[in-house]
Amino acid sequence: MNVLTPVQTQTMKAAVVIGAGRLRVEDVPLPQPGPGQLRVKLEGCGVCASNLTPWAGPEWMRFPTEPGGLGHEGWGVVDAVGENVQSVAIGDRVASLGQHAYATHDIADENAVVPLPAEFDGKPFPGEPLGCALNIFKRSDIVAGQTVAIVGIGFLGALLTQLCVAAGARVIALSRRPFSLDLARHSGAGETIPLDDHWRIIEHVKQITNGRFCDRVIEAVGKQWPLDLAAELTRERGRLIVAGYHQDGPRQINMQLWNWRGLDVVNAHERDPAIYIQGIRDAVTAIRSGRLDPSPLYTHRFPLVRLDDALNMTRDRPDGFVKALIVYP
């Protein structure tokens, strides 16, 4: 193993979830990279809404978690590499797909990191959700002139609003929070609609699209009703893109509607790490070109000892909240 400087300590700080809604920060042994791996001294980690189900302590969840577990949106500087690592060097700043990033250090495979350009220095870069947004956008097949409805304007929905506007699409943004609708307007959405009454929304969208509905509808909430609504807003032979995280139970669908309208339905979640990595590379390109600017969306920052507050805020989504980051000194 190579190191940038002599290691001053053999321990690191890591969050351990010990029960539903409870965690502690522990001093644990500093992990060492094996062959083909590297270690990242993390600058920060984004807080993902997918953490909320295990944080709530469902029956299947096992506590305590592994140190740093659940954190998967890390970025930082490589401080050690294992044998046979060729493409990344000590001192490189990277976005990582490591899975233990609620800690000051994390291990990742060489092919699970993306080097970040120098102009990103000092700026947060939670690569996993940024790459997710680019992959969803790519699978949505959005082109100029289309009408695109985005159901749910959180971090993901706001990123997709920017990307769709940059592509020349007309965006209809739907969200329950006035703050999120304001955010969508500032990102270029042509129409914003409160996510309240099911039939009122359908009639409104029907009216503003001259009865045609939307070429593309991206559902980005992860709940039953928004999924139902998204299908209703998709035109005949349109594309319904499921981007929400539907992992809190089974869903029912209106197959009669889907079948009658001849909808193309895309489940836009990726599991192949190589596709995730390409999405992160595409996010780097999109930010450098000006098509994407995530910086206004990082609304709250917390130290590791306040990870519980960050998770609770991600769950409760108070006014003004979009995305929480855990930052390390």
Automatic annotation (TrEMBL):
Keywords: Membrane, Metal-binding, Oxidoreductase, Transmembrane, Transmembrane helix, Zinc. The chain crosses the membrane at residues 148-173. One of its GO terms (molecular function) is zinc ion binding. Its cofactor is Zn(2+). SMART domains: PKS_ER. InterPro entries: ADH-like_C, ADH-like_N, ADH_Zn_CS, ER, GroES-like_sf, NAD(P)-bd_dom_sf, Zn_alcohol_dh. Residues 19-326 form the Enoyl reductase (ER) domain. PROSITE patterns: ADH_ZINC. Belongs to the zinc-containing alcohol dehydrogenase family. PANTHER family: L-THREONINE 3-DEHYDROGENASE (PTHR43401). This is Threonine dehydrogenase-like Zn-dependent dehydrogenase. It comes from Rhizobium leucaenae.
